[in-house]
Amino acid sequence: MSFKGRDILSSAELSKQDFLDIMKVTEKMETLVKEEKVSNLLSDKLVGVLFLEPSTRTRLSFEAAVQRLGAKAITVASAASSSAAKGESLADTAKTVDGYVDLIVVRQPEKGGAKVMADAAEAPVINGGDGAGQHPTQALLDLYTILKEKGTLENLKIAMVGDLKNGRTVHSLSYTMAPFSPKEYIYCAPDELQMPADIVGDMEKQSVPITKTNDINVALQADIVYMTRIQRERFENPADYERLKGSFVLDRTLVESGNKDMTIMHPLPRVDEISTDVDDLPNAAYFRQAQNGMYLRMALLAMLTGRAEA
Question: Does 38 fall in a domain?
């Protein structure tokens, strides 16, 4: 199925075949970068990159992806520098930007906000993160990282650790990996920050075995240990954040006590949940994971504009 003109709003909306097709094109993009550095594949395209919420990796990797493919980006780097600061609605922003560009990438803090913009715009919209909702491009780059690190996506035990309640990366990853017959999901979090019930229910409907725990040692028996930070910006009460922020800290000693073949991932930025003494271990994949984000986002830009297929 062609991706031309499609929106990428949630990993739950993509099929297993969609995932596999995206992985194939991502591999082509990685090869393109390593062989050609810069392409002219999208030299006639203009991409709106609207970041109304703070970001480093997602924004820069999207901008790098645009430039690697020869396209041009017009960028809004913060809500304060856009008409959102004046109270403009997301729909109005989308309708305005739609007249300027061929594709829109948006990150903003309102759960479901990317869909509002997609409904208002004719150009394809890619959700770069919508509050505590979904982050599909992160989940897709995570999928590509797992495939590269493990050589397969099938039948893996995956532990997700940290703020699972507000963590849009683990929400998306749960849906993305579900079609690949996971051996088990281990949801490791304080009770107050456990995976939302609707997502757990959706996973159970797809026959994914689930273990909930607050013991990181249980998580360290997995094939993939996906760490997340406790997110200060998602807490209404600062005291709750202070109480929970140090719930899980992965250091070298803990890693060495766990599954010797585990792959450690993290969407970044980290605060204190992975010690720097883990960084040089061969199974620490989080900086490779960040680099994979550029290849994945190149693939989506090329596919949604009809310039690449699996």
Answer: yes
Which pLDDT score is estimated for 52?
87
Under 8 Å CB-to-CB from 239, ≥6 apart: which residues? none
Contact 216, 161 (CB under 8 A): yes
Mark whether 269 and 156 lie in a shared domain: yes
Name the token pair of 103: 């594709």
Contacts of 183 (CB under 8 A, 6+ apart): 155, 156, 157, 209, 223
Identify the CATH number of the domain in which residue 39 sits: 3.40.50.1370
Please indicate, yes or no, if residue 3 is contained in any of the structural domains: no
* Same domain membership, residue 183 and residue 38: no
Q: Is 108 helix (H, G, I), strand (E, B) or coil?
A: strand
pLDDT tens for each residue of 177-206? 999 999 999 999 988 899 999 999 999 999
* Separation of first and last alpha carbons in the chain: 9
What is this structure's pTM?
Answer: 0.92
Residue 212, H or E segment: strand 210-213
Kindly report the backbone phi and psi dihedral angles of residue 106, in degrees, each rounded to the nearest multiple of 5, phi listed first: -135, 135
Residue 159 phi, psi (nearest 5):
-100, 130
Q: What is the pLDDT of residues 97-140, one digit of tens each?
A: 999 999 999 999 898 999 999 999 999 999 999 877 788 999 99
- Is 309 contained in some domain? no
Please determine, for residue 255, whether its predicted confidence score (pLDDT) is greater than 90. yes
Domain range enclosing 298 = 11-134+292-304
- Integer Cα distance of 214 and 209 in angstroms: 17
User: Angle at which helices 16-36 and 57-68 pack, to 10 degrees?
Assistant: 70
Label residue 207 by pLDDT band (50, 70, 90).
Answer: very high
